[in-house]
Amino acid sequence: MKTNEELQRDVQNAIKWEPQLHAAEIGVTAKDGIVTLMGTVDAYFKKIEAENAAKNVDGVKAIVEEINVRYSNSQKSDTDIANDVIKALIDCWSVPNEKLKVKVEDGWITLEGHLTWNYQKEAAEKAIAYLSGVKGINNQIKIKSEIQDQIEKKDVERALKSNWTLHSQEILVRVEGTKVILTGAVSSLFQKDLAEKTAWKTPGVWSVDNQLVVEHKYATII
Length: 222
Hints:
The protein has helices at about 5-15, 45-55, 80-90, 120-130, 155-160, 190-200; strands at about 25-30, 35-40, 60-70, 100-105, 110-115, 135-140, 140-145, 170-175, 180-185, 205-210, 215.
């Protein structure tokens, strides 16, 4: 079991371990598994790196993210950012960019449209995360699978159990039309995200409702 202080220290160390975050001014607090990240970074991708580093720490149940992105040099115009985003999406072979719409407002990018697979949605976001001038990404892309086959609950369950990281977890699967609902408990936030990514790979899925609870005991100092 970890105390709040131990979890805070583990998250701080995980962030410091990332080469691109060595000089980042990121503060960490932890209480009963809820980790809050605060501070300022000079690029949007560093904000994402900090979140991912925290997610991989054992004992983290949830993350409250309060990191601001502030560029030291002159801020790019929204028009320049929009042009960079469009080019990045065109260059990303896994993203059918003609199905997407882009809006940029004060450095914040909104992606809209419909794609057939969730990995394409994730690839679109990754393609623009490292662009200069980006302050945040609002990914509103919807998934509309072209596969009309009925989703088999057993297929999702088999995929979850085949992953050694998840096979011993108490994950329950329910299917409602094109939606997969995950309930039960896992032992880490990383496993919760991994279960959702695994479910998204099922042919015919339009949405995943991830209701998994992260269970982890914490020591109480008296």
